[in-house]
Amino acid sequence: MPHITVKPFDTSIIEKKSYINTKVIFKSKDLLSQDELIGVEVKGSKFLLYIKKSEKNWLFKYDKVTRPLDVNLVKEAIDNISSKLNLEIINSNIAINQTKTKLANSFEKRIEDFSDIKFPFSRVSIEVGFGSGKHLLYQAEKNPNELFIGIEIHTPSAQQVLRQIELKSLKNIWVINYDARLLLEIIPSNSIHKIFVHFPVPWDKKPQRRVISPSFLNESIRVLEQGGRLELRTDSYKYFWYSLETFLGENVLKTSLEVRKNESLDITSKYEARWLRQDKDIYDVFVTSLEESKERVFDFDFTFNSIKYKDTLLDKISKKPMVFDSFFIHFERFYRVDKSTILLKLAFGSFNRSEHKYIIIDNKKSYYFGQNPVKTLTNYKTHLKIEEYLNV
Ligand SMILES: C[S@@+](CC[C@H](N)C(=O)[O-])C[C@H]1O[C@@H](n2cnc3c(N)ncnc32)[C@H](O)[C@@H]1O
After folding, report:
1. For ligand 1, is residue 271 a contact (CB within 6 Å)?
2. Is this model's pTM higher than 0.70 or not?
3. Ligand 1 in contact with 152 (CB < 6 A)?
4. Which of 35, 224, 271, 375 is the most buried (most CB within 10 A)?
């Protein structure tokens, strides 16, 4: 991931202004270390850059929570600022490689894009955790008049598939770099033809991280059209039985189930190829949704109406995670922007599908820096609690 190592410099030379294509919106200092975070905007994308200080050299790099999928934007920001300020560079990996295909940006979707979504094709399918993207690309090539939404939590995989989309000139894939368990909650009801979950990580030791769960199943049934289906494919016997039990759970709505063993598909993913070489059994479970689901209203508003900066605010904020009935809030890091503005980094939301965000608080207004949280009911309840908690 893009970074440079520079000789220490006086950071007061970084001003709130444009450096070539990069606009510096604010600078902030970590209250527990010497590190700094810089809020920037490049080509409409807002994110943070991180200056990690040590005695001899400093790391100038991206911030994991707010980084854009297009890695070139981060490279550009670091390059624009460091070259304009004549920083002494010791090491760099930000050379923008002109020969590399550029990322197919128009196919990258963000959370905001889903707030009033219109699909460009009438048939839409989703692949959760597409990894190398072999199956996603195959489906899109085979069905050019259908839309395939790939949701992948691992950023380099999402970036790699965006490049493949560009190379293959595909027009019917959207890629979103997010936790699919959260994203599914903002997809309209009865709108999806198929949901593919191929070779999910079994997480035997941390089952709360599994993709398949009762709530994921409920959301899948809700977003699937009547007759649409969720297709799980796994090499893990344990995960197969766990999923089957989940699919047959007490509160599951009207569905039909189909189980297959060792069926070969037209396309073999990287993971599948590995298991096949080891002669492992492969299991498919298909869950078909048999009923129309109710529409979901997403009128959650994530603006802060009442939080304003006060000198007493920082002392009041708990440094430990706060647990409420169905969610938690953990203020993890605190940054000072100026005497009446702070930046807070927090983790929050449901226990097994938490989000990380930054909040800017000044004496006039407060807002999430970068993207708002996903519009789920739990996130909304958490947001209201954050507002109540910080409104001192
Ligand atoms: C074992 S790999 C399988 C990849 C691909 N489906 C295949 O068959 O080759 C599991 C993939 O799921 C992704 N993943 C895990 N949890 C996820 C989540 N909650 N949301 C989206 N992707 C997830 C991982 O990053 C990884 O790429």
Report:
1. yes
2. yes
3. yes
4. 224
